[in-house]
# Entry
Amino acid sequence: MRLSFCAYAAAGIVALSGAALADGQSVYNQDCAACHQIMAPKTGDKAAWAPLIKKGTDALTQSVIKGKGMMPAKGGHPELSDADIKAAVEYMEDKSK
# Structure
């Protein structure tokens, strides 16, 4: 049985999405969890995250990159790439919906 190019492409997209989520989880666990497990917005707090999620992933990512309130730029981890930050934001959004 032959699979079409579209089927292979769709499988690749699903695999990449899972990889991005896994990377986000790693970044979160290593660089974000210490604060976001005890300080607002706590990961998983649907009420706290709802208005943030409404702003969109890109806006949240930029807030993390630039810093906001008590959170320093890149959450105090300047070695993180913008892609790492976005993956962690997506992970936290997913866990807080």
